[in-house]
Amino acid sequence: MKLLLLGATGxxxxxxxxxxxxxxxxxxxxxxxxxxxxxRPGLVAPVVDFDSLPQDPSIWTADAVICALGTTLKxxxxxxxxxxxxxxxxxxxxxxARAHGARTFVLNSAKGSHVKSLFFxxxxxxxxxxxxxxxxxxxxxxxxxxxxxGPRSQPRPMEEWAGRxxxxxxxxxxxxxxxxxxxxxxxxxxxxxxDAPPGVTVVPSEDLL
Length: 209
Fold this sequence. Notes:
Distance between the termini: 27 Å
Mean pLDDT: 90
Strand order of the largest sheet: 3-2-1-4-5-6-7
CATH topology: Rossmann fold
Number of domains: 1
Low-confidence stretches: 160-166
Largest sheet: 7 strands, parallel
Order of helices and strands: EHEEHEHHEHEHHE
Structural class: alpha/beta
Number of strands: 7
Strand content: 5-15%
Helix content: 25-40%
CATH class: Alpha Beta
């Protein structure tokens, strides 16, 4: 199959990229990014401007899409910019992929996402989930991890601190409160992209341990 991967330079997306390129079920991975990726067999990595996406069908034609795009309010610098990355970039690319025949879309969302959440982050995640579902892919998979425990290319001190605390408390915490390893999230997303059932599937954080 041909896979379109969004967010390949991020923590989860990087793990997806490694897994997909090593998976014999995947023939090609197209990973449009804002900065160049090292050349690897099976990888097509065009550098694109997500604020002005190219319309080239060779970029957006795929059997399945995995979207691991995301940022934080601190890194984004404003709510408007955060919304642009976590909502608009994901939706704009999903529309292009859907128009070029993609049948499966796998979205890395977040635990607690809901369009009516009191928390801005969770509300944006809920909005993008609903807007992706409205596009009508044959298979839509919503993956909802909790705190993602792993090293970042850009420091996230609060997440790193929380990850250390949860790691210490892991033996006594219920599954719903444990941090999720990025490689486990990536594996779940790739397997869903390749073999998800028709309709809508939601993968909770408890299934990503």
